[in-house]
Fold these 2 entries.
Entry 1:
Amino acid sequence: MQNAEVARQFEELADLLEIQGANPFRLRAYRNAARTLSGLPDSIQDIARNNPKELLELPGIGKDLALKIETIVETATLPQLEELKEEIPADVVRMLDIPGIGPKKVAFLFSELSIHSLDDLKAAAENGVIAEQKGFGKKTEQIILAGLEHLSQAGNRVRLADAKAQSDEIIHDLDTLKSVLQISEAGSCRRRKESVGDLDILVTSSQPNEVMDALENHELVKEVLARGETKQRVRLNSGLEMDLRVVPEESYGAALLYFTGSKEHNIVLRRRSQERGLKLNEYGLFREEELVSGRTEEEVFQTLDLPWIPPEIRENRMEFEAAEKNKLPELVELEQIRGDLHMHTTATDGTASILEMAEGAKSNGLQYIAITDHSKRVTMANGLDATRLRAHWKEIEKVQSQISGIQIMKGIECDILEDGTMDLPDDVLSEADWVIAVLHYGLKQPQKQITQRLLNAIRNPHVSIIGHLSGRLIGKRPGADLNYSEVLKAAADHGTMMEINAHPMRLDIDDIHAAKAKELGIPIVINTDAHSVRGLEVMQYGVYQARRAGLTKKDVANTKTWKQFYNLLKTSR
Ligand code: DGT
Ligand code: CA
Ligand code: CA
């Protein structure tokens, strides 16, 4: 059982109890537990099974919660949760996701009006039944109808690269308006989260209407969903939705902070404000009615005795503790990347030659690359056997002699077979400059078996690095059920590096486990896994993920110069 699943069950429990009108303190305890678990790099299942006492050391986990965790791990669920689910249908819980509809209203709809599904709710709203109820009215009816429309789309999170491209284009175009003074992305996109629910942008302008008209007429915008005096919600042609807010200049920093989130980060900021006798909202930081700060984010942070915290780490994971100690990490930057050690050519499933890839990387400013085509198990991609691989390496040597200013390593992306052996024999691997070991097949094996496969590869002295560890494809398929703590510990022990695969569908390893790898001192390499010259351009997304993990230049091995990197390789095994 993965941590995310245990966390999800606590969230669900809290939601159901909330509809029942349970004590808010109890709800908060469950929600905090869920957050602790989903941010935990170690396997909660292992802790619960092997060292249940350690559960009590986790933040916010007391005896009752520890017992519940053990029950979930052992029985895959909680009796209490099962009972509540019998009583309250899942659709009723989803009604909580309609903005403006709280648990009290949901409880009323469910128990007084016998609304058991979203379809029931839609019918009741359309027939005017909702508007008739005391405390509801025509306005709530409209909110519900709009909310239902949104819900039918929700759950459709969009990968960061796709979301950001649309956000960037709209921001670029709105920024050309004379009346726009400042404009910025906000929300999860600004935090560079791997997937985005909706886009948020923020503007200061003397002419809010001009900005909203321009957005409405933008070629990426399909329709306006709502429009007020200073805010607008639109649906883009892609289906993705966008919130635009126009704020006064003196509130811009406070609004940017508020709408960048995360919610969890904001909660801590508000608490810090209260501790200082101040009140923080999207309009500014106030003492009584007086605006103390709000024009810039820096100013607001400063009033709260904090340095400016980069958006990527505003998740209430480690940022406040680090900021307090004046130890915020200097996050790694794209310009610091000097090598790219995972890419394909026409020898397997790439579209460009060795020379074209090398030239492409060189013109992107890189000093070194590794050509890592597939091994033979990947028949679909025309994977290489020992003979073809050796010929391919000869070809790489030839290309190296034709191009200067870039080092080309002779690599291989070698499959870890279902039985845990490598797809190519050790004597072949030993001739490589760089071996990426990966799982492509048997990703659904049970945790023990698939973890063992990785441990074998990590312990193989010819393996340099594990590529796209979990095998997940964001929004498409979950990663393998791995024992991350065992895998990462073994990598640390054996000097095996870990990849952050920068492909926008992979971003694997994820931010939480990359943070854990850093903590263990495992060198991390950010690679594009490019299958074309254009594919080399996704490096940025891997860097975003590394930043979310709090990684600095020092933590990312391919920020080293070629000479430093070469030395690291020679000494690390
Ligand atoms: P998303 O869109 O699901 O990927 O995630 P976000 O973080 O972009 O969330 P969104 O679009 O609902 O709201 C943008 C930011 O606005 C969010 O990160 C924090 C802030 N915000 C929105 N609603 C609330 C709220 O009810 N309470 C607090 N404290 N902040 C909120
Ligand atoms: Ca958003
Ligand atoms: Ca939003």
Note: Residues 187-188, 193, 196-198, 200, 258-259, 261-263, 266 surround 2'-deoxyguanosine-5'-triphosphate (ligand 1) (CB under 6 Å).
Entry 2:
Amino acid sequence: MHLQRPVNEGFLILDYGSQYTLLIARRLREIGVYAEIIDGTRQTEPKEDFHFHGIILSGGPDTVGDEGARSLPAWVAASKKPILGICYGMQLMAEASGGKLRSGHEREYGKAHLSFDFKELPKYAESLRSLPKDQIVWMSHGDDVEAPDDSFVTLARTDDKVVAVIAHREKPWIGLQFHPEVQHTDHGEALLKAFVFDICKAPRNWDSSQMLNASIERIRQNVGKGKVLMAVSGGVDSTVAALLLTRALGQEQVHAIFVDHGLLRKDEAIWVQDQFKSLGVHLTTLDQKKEFYEELAGITDPEQKRKIIGRKFIEAFEAFAKGHKEFTHLGQGTLYPDVIESAGHGAGAKVIKSHHNVGGLPEKLALELVEPFRYLFKDEVRIIGRALGIPSILVDRHPFPGPGLAVRIIGAIDAEKVRILQEADAIFIRQLHEHGFYSQVWQAFAVLLPVKSVGVMGDNRTYQDVCALRAVTASDGMTAGVGDLPISFLVNVGTEIVRKVNGINRVVYDVTTKPPATIEWE
Ligand code: XMP
């Protein structure tokens, strides 16, 4: 059991595997309506518990009609609700009505210019007339609609004559060959608003800043007089979840557990304890450094490291839970993107890394789950965090991987290497704050390489480890760019690290994007 969805009406987004599916849901919430993502091939209409005003068909990598390509479920084609088809979604819609598609004819990627022709605009779509006739839109496709069926009118074409906007003459079906959800589409928001408010006539029902009270109410209803055990990592999601639960239920009903595996940032355990104390959340820290170091001794394989840490973490948590039978619920900071597997996050994709985080606790604990953020995005959790009064140094923290410094010390781990890396990392992070770069990057950290190089300090030869600095830009960590930090700043950081951290005599900057590299080195 987990908390029910926050509201029972809104929009359905059918996912066909586009990298932008999550973004469509976020955009709808930003304009004030709740949206949920479901598998685009789902064969039954989800009508029992969710009232939807309209359907959005996402883009996707398939080619309509190819073997294995996802198709439009019969209940969608038969639905009386307005439908907005985006790219692949538009092609599905066009094909379902007998239109002609073509594959690989006009590959367009990037900005395109289109012109509207409103002469035959259907009545239900009248509000589109207020959009600028000429627009720049963002395209990303290899297939398109060559000729829609006569039941559709073509409302816009690009300069290359690609059919860009179609509308059914009677049914409220609109198809877009571009992405209104991405920022590069100049009037994307206006288009989404026209669909949501004018064509679907949906009421506004979502305001991230208003979620706080509703969440508190739902937690009270679900947990009642129960007691919640909450695993925390010091990161944004679990911290906000722990405080929200505490505010909803009171201090005596919520207990946070923090496992110190000895692979945290410098002084992190004390910092987390101080933060929780000032937030008024009960916290117990389990000091497991010795146990983790023992099991990790001599292990160099990244996956083996990750598996050992995941297992040890669960063991530590289970041991605590077994000794404290008073708990009825397990709190987790699970986010919406973690829940919808099919949404661009590669259901059935190859395992690149075995992820471990505080949300990965086993179900055999026999505690009921409370997941207050199961339907929310990270930026919405940050809004709740701010509304609860959590300071920016906590709410706007960079992400930190569950296995911690173990995946940033390449090769075998020992306490001395952890100390060296903590020192270097702390210098980098402090300087990022001091120069105002911290909030300009998604994540920044130091990595310790098992590579020795020769240096000279004073008159002496040194032969010590190399430290790599990594700073990336990203919006969700699925892809990443290289942080554009000034070379003079990096030189300063490198100089301070080599001067102050005994064990490092050379510093390099990682200039690889993701893909092909990942953000963490292991
Ligand atoms: P990668 O290295 O896969 O990282 O490009 C993407 C994002 O995920 C974080 N990360 C993790 N987070 N448990 C977590 O909670 C993990 O095991 C884990 N491994 C990587 C990483 O820091 C980056 O933000």
Note: The two ends are 34 Å apart (CA to CA).
